Amino acid sequence: AYLRPERLPDTRSYAEAIARTVGDLETAGLSPADLRVAADAASGGIDKDPVLPHRLQDIAALWEAADAQLLRENPRLRSPAGLLLAAAAELEREPGLAAPFGDVFTLLPLQPTSALLRFIAALRPRALGLLAGRPERDSWRKLRDAALGAAYEEAAEDGKPPRTELDLVHRYLFAAPEELARRDRPRSSGPDGTVVLEQHPGVQQEIDAAVSWAMEEVTERRTPLEAIALVVPDRDPLAGLLAAALERADKGGQPLPAYVAGGLPLTDAPGGTLLRQLLVALHEGLESERTIALLPHLRLGGPGHLSVADARKVVQGSGVVGGTPGNLARARELADRLSDREAQLRTFLEETGRLGEDDPEKVRRSRGLKDASRLRESIAAVLPAAEALTALAASVLDGTPLPKLWPAVLAFYRDWCLIPPPPPDAARSLDEVLREVSASSIASKLRGRDAVEYLLSTLETLRHPHGRHGEPRVFIGTGADVALLRFRAVRVMGAVEGVIPGAPREDPILPDAARLWLNERKPGCLLATSADRVLRETHEVFLAATAASERLAMSATRQWVDGTEHELAGAMLETAVALGRPGDGGERELVPSLGSLRRLYVGPGNAERARREAEQPATVRSALRLVARADDGRGAHAVHPAWLVPADALLSLSRLRAIAAERGSAELLRSDGFLGPLAAGLALPGLAAERGISASALGVLLACPHRYLLDSVLSFKPREERLSLREVDQPHYGSLVHRVVERFFRAHGEAFCRRERTLAEWRRIADEAADACFLEFLREYPLAGDGAVEAQRQRLRREVGYLVRAEWDSGTRLTYGNVEVSFGYPAAVPLAVDGGTLHVQGFIDRLDRATVGLVVRDFKTGKQKAREETDVDPVVDAQIGLYALVAPGLMGGEKVARAAYIYPVAVGDAERAFEGAELEDLLRRAREWFGLARELLAARSFPHTADAKRCNYCAFQAVCGTDGAAVSQRKLAAAAPSSVAARFAAIQRATEADDAD
Ligand code: SF4
Asked: Among 283, 306, 440, 973, which is disulfide-ready with 73 (CB 3.0 to 4.6 Å)?
């Protein structure tokens, strides 16, 4: 009537919340029968919870159902509370069972549960202790009375007067207000180094400060590692980050080993991460990005492994879409698609290999030959693993039950994954947990994706040990972990509001009002409320702070791990209250204001930590922060000497400072791309017949020579991006259109130019060519969904149709020449340009004859460029200019009469043409641009562009900095007139990047 059982199968968090509540009820010693009786007693509801009877009835019904199913299957399946209660019942029946233990002394933890108390009572201990924290609250007193009964003694406190600030904390932290307010109580006379409070801007700084503090303990105070504790509010992710920072060898080669109480998440260990990646990929139907992330970790047919970039090419270049939320079944296609693409590439490579060296087809194919060969090798290498992965994904889709599925996943992981060496052995840990579960029939009901989800959630709960307690290691743990321990130095971290203690959260299934009502009703019932949890966490902070015997540090951060801003925790203020430091004029505030807290407590702590950090930065990050803060920009702060030598080492600060100084100077130097004779040995295209430079490379060189250097010369390739699955991205779309146009004109160019059919017939034939090419293209490009495939097919047909119509309507009667006309193969074409010869090569989209001379055309698929009569641009027009300069040499010296771009537009003028004087101007300018390009290459000068707009979408911004173009503009403006730099500056102007055709 109240809970919604129908939501349980689909809403995991709902089921987990109910299971948690049932767990709480069980530890409180209640049973489903108790809940039913209580529901009857509260038949009309209670004030604060009118639906209480329904809640209780529903919880009881679900609890009984779960127990009946679980225990029928396996009577040994018991919760810890269930075990305690069963053991208590046995001991109550047969007290002699405890005899072998002899006299029992028990120390109860903070907030023991009813189940534990009942078990302890049945043990009849000779002595009983209860771990107590401060502050005292009524709920805690009630618990104490329940645990210890009326006769108990408070543990004796140290009666000596406090001598240090830490003694004051031990005595007065969270003490009763009247005691704190007592005028004659001892107070601090000022910081003595035993208690330090700090606040940092962010978590990284707080971690670095903790490392610095631990270093100081070890090196200056000679504190043994195991006597140092770092207390975190939550194990994850802070404990792992701290352990990594301590153990990093950036402290003069002296890592500090750490012990993490409770261990670290298994999924953070390399093997656990990989197993998780595999499970996620299976759960998401081998979604393409998940598959790309997994492939580099799979065993190949030969040695080595795929890089992430190769994996992306394999998946995207084989048209693999992978599962999508609407179509997970695509997971079944992976192996077939790869195998199909491998066969296609193999045929292509074999056919090409059989062609003669001077065969024009071989020349045309030479463009993608290297990439095709590499892709084929990558696919062939990963194919056996991909076949096994596809079979595994298919068994998930087929709904294989958990007991069968897990062994198959495990076998794949062991046989096909490049597993990082243990420890920890993630698969084994998960296997151990699953062995018992898999034996039950409930496990068989978990099938397919549900089973994978179960595996994932189970894996995510597993942890692996990091060090052992007692070893010489810095202790890292939560307040609960240090509750019974003592250390010489303790640092409590994350002391921010809402974190220690956490914000109160009521249980939505059984709210506080209902819990309090049940506690009142049933003797011995200790159901914890949200306030109890907050109190327990506060007690843990108290115990952590008082676990320090010599020094205590408390640190906070303004920005917490989740990015939220926080104020200092109440525990910080309480510590200040306990200390009662005097103000500047000797006055003492009972409760310091926020300003006093910062000035008298946090300020001195921060200043001391900053001083220590400046003297000896504990981590690379701290040192970098110091360097970044150096006022003079020349490293006034001392850094590790190793950072400065050798002076020209890649990461040497000396070298980086020299680069910064070069940028600041007025001269064009090495870091500006002016490499000079140093790079004389650099083999560059365009300067000799053996290697020509292409039209597209010339475009890049003239737009930004530095980009050309990074991309084409040094082969720094930006990370390949995820392709759109809904439409064909550029440059893939551009090359697809060119493929169709080439196929159409190669087969029908002559007949088309003779107008042997009507335009409608030609468009139908062009449609057929588009369909055929598109079908092939789908083997190498991923498009998700029939809708996307059809939309892109129509887009291709439409735009190819526009191009065909544009030629038909152009008014110039042509004699067909050729399409995709190659030049510069095998030997580059020597082109006379201003100042010398540039060697070029490439392909002209169309080259035909008209009565007035040659016609050169370039097909475009991007936005049509509006052009004013005299508007010629080196970046946009380098390509057509080059084709027009080269064309006469390919056609027996005939003159070019017209050079034009053709755009696929629905209506209007589709051409942007150069004729007559405009063409002459274009050719003159092109010779000038290419002459400049030759000079830049010959001088090994690769300046940054001076046009900041060109940097907007450039992947090399991280290399050049956001001010790369501005620096270049300043320097180029100062270059000597008529120098290559000044002439490059003269051709710089803002233009939009051209499309990739
Ligand atoms: S970021 Fe700008 S200056 Fe640097 S390579 Fe790219 S375009 Fe050139």
From this structure: 440
Cβ(957) to ligand 1 under 6 A?
yes
pLDDT tens, residue by residue, 88-124 = 999 999 999 999 989 999 999 888 999 999 999 999 9
Q: Which of 936, 954, 963, 984 to mutate to test the pocket of ligand 1 (most atoms within 8 A of CB)?
A: 954
Q: For 539-555, what is the mean pLDDT?
A: 95
Cβ of 956 less than 6 Å from ligand 1:
yes
165-257+469-505+548-615 fold = Rossmann fold (3.40.50)
The Å distance, Cα 368 to ligand 1 centre, comes to: 26
Three-state secondary structure call for residue 257:
coil
In the structure encoding, which two tokens stand for residue 783, read together? 């498009």
Question: Using an 8 Å Cβ cutoff, are 81 and 27 in contact?
Answer: yes
Phi, psi dihedral angles at 777 (to 5 degrees): -65, -35
Which structure tokens are listed for 957? 């911004």
pLDDT in tens, 639-688: 667 777 777 777 777 888 888 888 888 898 988 999 988 898 888 999 99
- Per-residue pLDDT tens digits for 19-61: 999 999 999 999 999 999 999 998 888 888 889 999 999 999 9
Detail the DSSP E strand segments found in 638-724: none
Regarding the beta carbon of 960 and ligand 1, being less than 6 Å apart is answered: yes
Ligand 1 centroid distance, CA of 927 (Å): 25
Choose between 652 and 991: higher pLDDT.
652
Ligand 1: which of 663, 674, 956, 967 to mutate, most ligand atoms within 8 Å of CB?
956
Residue pLDDT, tens place only, 949-978 = 889 889 899 889 888 999 999 999 999 988
CB 804 within 8 A of CB 782: no
Q: How far apart are CA 260 and CA 803, in angstroms?
A: 68
Burial of 649 (0-12, 13-18, 19+ CB in 10 A): middle
Using pLDDT thresholds of 50, 70 and 90, give the confidence band for residue 630.
low
Q: Which of 713, 717, 950, 992 to mutate to test the pocket of ligand 1 (most atoms within 8 A of CB)?
A: 950
Spatial contact of 134 and 146, defined as CB atoms under 8 Å apart:
no
Distance from Cα 990 to the centre of ligand 1, integer Å:
14
Q: Which among 967, 885, 961 is positioned nearest to 927, based on CA atoms?
A: 885
Each residue's pLDDT tens digit, 416-455? 999 998 889 999 999 999 987 887 777 888 899 999 999 9
Span 429-440, pLDDT tens digits? 999 999 878 877
CA distance 935 to 922: 20
φ/ψ of 833, rounded to 5, equals -125, 170
Domains in the chain: boundaries: 5-77, 82-148, 165-257+469-505+548-615, 268-466
- Whether the CA torsion 561, 562, 564, 569 is positive or negative: it is negative
Residue 948 Cα to ligand 1 middle (Å): 8
